[in-house]
Design goal:
By secondary structure, this protein is of the alpha/beta class. Helix content is 53%, strand content 8%.
């Protein structure tokens, strides 16, 4: 929204840091890999304890069965699932070599065998697939927190790969002390502590909560609500969502055969269906001509007992179309809510998360490799960290979505809109369409500022709500500054001057948005914070960026070289931050 967005300021600081360490090939190469990542799809690491359901949830999110699922833990190496025009498997070794495994299709058996290699043989796998669900994001499947691979390589290696991701989706059946300690270790550095906006915790296998059955989801939601109010967990994760990954995967990949089998079972009398669902053995081995035992076994393996029961109940209630059944079951699984949260929290705000990753890389290098003259970079880093309003917006949006901060319903909706929940463009934040004139946007911004100033002096607000109001006020002020100094909106046909005439506009009508901006800014407590962006470290970023890109030799990657798999950048154990974390 501003002329010098956070991502560009973070990119400029990253380039200046890379230039400062140009005589250190290892550090500069690692930083160059972080710089290249800023133009790649958002990276989301999927972590959790052993058998938390990581592979299953990845398949559910992607909408295809790519990640192998087994009864026992097999994921020993970090596996990247990313978009590619054709199926491809790349094996990265700890020494920086990259091997292309020839494949025509992505077979889960081949991926399973590669994932079972030892970490000292394979540092990471990269699976490229033309699956549409991977166009906007790259998913990173990590070994279990307490797995043999993590015990062999050390937890710092796993924390390192999570720090390389822009966001984290952490799975757990039930939050334990081990989970909390691990998530805290991922947020050790100053940047991560100041910007704890990139973690969503999913209570996987919610259908197994308590004694299972229809009440399992309600029990899982009660547990999630309790942990949402836990100050330790809330310090690094605002969203805690119960989800049934197995059901989500089955619904996302449902076939006509699955739907037909469920429909056949639903035609049985009610007492026969109840008898079938008493146990897995009865469901599979009972005599039923319309649906053979192997077909029923497939249903149970794919949908689980909870999913089969819910599907039969929905079909009996009149949901007899496959698309409607899929939609209803996705709601039941919690996958819809999780996908919506991932989209709003991660994809819609990917620039802010990329900026976080860039500053995290700078922080890691400055701590791990201090040298004379680093104080100026550290000062720019501190100023950028303190003045990043985009992160304040993300934190408040998370608090509003999770219920940690609640306003009256009209204010709640307006706060989320002004913070960019429904689009980052000024017209979207102000609730107008794309054709809105600048004068109308300026009027609306001034009116919003006035409404939230009234909330700033509301004596009934506690400290969290006062801080929330200040964040919304800052967003309003930035909107006004944008209208006053940003590019002008196109005029309507009635306002455009004729070619043969010079426009004669009265002085008081020339810049109405500036008059509203002046009225809106007068007396604002956040005025210096809004206008102070022009003097932020990013103000020097353009010239520094041009200078860094014009560096000869190794400082500039030659055109046409692949950017995704830099051999040295792909070694998390060799990254500068690994020493700082140890």
């Amino acid at each position: 929204m501003s002329g010098d967005p956070l991502l560009e300021r973070a990119r400029a600081l990253l380039i200046r840091t890379m230039t400062f360490y140009r005589d250190d090939p290892r550090t500069s190469t690692w930083l160059r890999g972080r710089l290249e990542r800023l133009d790649q799809p958002l990276r989301i690491a999927v972590g959790g304890r052993v058998k938390a359901g990581k592979s299953t949830l990845i398949n559910a999110l992607v909408g295809a069965e790519l990640a192998p699922t087994d009864a026992e833990e097999r994921t020993q190496v970090n596996t990247f699932y990313q978009y590619g025009p054709e199926p491809k498997i790349l094996v990265h070794t700890p020494h920086g070599a990259v091997q292309n495994v020839p494949v025509t299709t992505l077979d889960t058996g081949t991926i399973r065998d590669l994932q079972h290699w030892r970490p000292d043989e394979v540092s990471r796998l990269v699976i490229e697939s033309p699956t549409p669900g991977l166009q906007a994001i790259t998913l990173i499947e990590t070994p279990g927190v307490a797995s043999a691979a993590v015990q062999e390589t050390g937890r710092s290696a796993l924390a390192q790969i999570l720090s390389e991701a822009d966001a984290v989706l952490y799975l757990t059946r039930y939050p334990r002390q081990t989970d909390l300690q691990f998530l805290q270790s991922v947020n050790e550095l100053q940047t991560a502590r100041c910007v704890p906006i990139n973690t969503i915790v999913a209570f996987s296998r919610a259908d197994e909560t308590g004694s299972g059955g229809p009440a399992a989801l309600e029990a899982a939601e009660r547990i999630a609500e309790r942990y949402r109010n836990d100050p330790t967990l809330r310090s690094f994760a605002q969203h805690l969502i119960p989800v049934i990954g197995l059901l989500g995967q089955a619904v996302a990949t449902m076939t006509d055969e699955d739907f037909m089998a469920l429909s056949n079972v639903s035609r049985l009398p009610q007492h026969d269906q109840d008898a079938l669902l008493l146990s897995a053995d009865r469901f599979i081995n009972s005599t039923m001509e319309s649906t053979p035992g192997p077909a029923r076994q497939r249903l149970l393996e794919r949908f689980g007992h909870f999913g089969v029961e819910r599907a039969l109940t929905l079909i009996r209630s009149g949901v007899t179309e496959r698309t409607k059944l899929q939609s209803a079951l996705l709601d039941e699984s919690g996958l819809n809510l999780l996908q919506e949260t991932v989209h709003q929290q991660f994809v819609e705000r990917q620039d802010a998360l990329r900026a976080r990753s860039a500053l995290l890389a700078v922080d890691m290098v400055l701590r791990a490799n201090p040298r004379p003259g680093v104080q100026q970079l550290r000062g720019e880093f501190e100023r950028l960290l303190a003045n990043a309003h985009e992160w304040n917006e993300l934190r408040l949006l998370s608090a509003l979505d999770s219920g940690q901060v609640r306003f009256a319903r009209p204010l709640q909706a307006e706060a989320k809109r002004l913070l960019g929940a429904f689009g980052n463009a000024p017209h979207a934040r102000l609730g107008r369409d794309e054709t809105a004139l600048a004068v109308d946007l300026a009027d609306e911004a001034a009116a919003a500022l006035s409404r939230w100033r009234e909330q700033a002096v509301n004596p009934l607000h506690d400290r969290p709500h006062r801080e929330a109001v200040r964040t919304v006020l800052r967003s309003c002020e930035r909107l006004i500054v944008h209208q006053a100094h940003g590019p002008q909106q196109p005029q309507s046909p009635q306002q455009q001057p004729q070619p043969s005439q010079q426009p004669q506009t009265p002085q008081h009508q020339q810049n109405p948005q500036r008059q509203h901006a002046a009225r809106g800014q007068h007396g604002s407590s956040g005025q210096h914070g809004s206008s102070g962006q022009q003097g932020s470290p990013g103000a020097h970023g353009t010239s520094a960026q041009r200078g860094a890109h014009s560096q000869p030799g190794p400082q500039r990657q030659q055109q046409g070289q692949p950017q995704r798999h830099h051999p040295q950048a792909a070694q998390p154990q060799n990254a500068p931050g690994a020493h700082a974390r140890d």
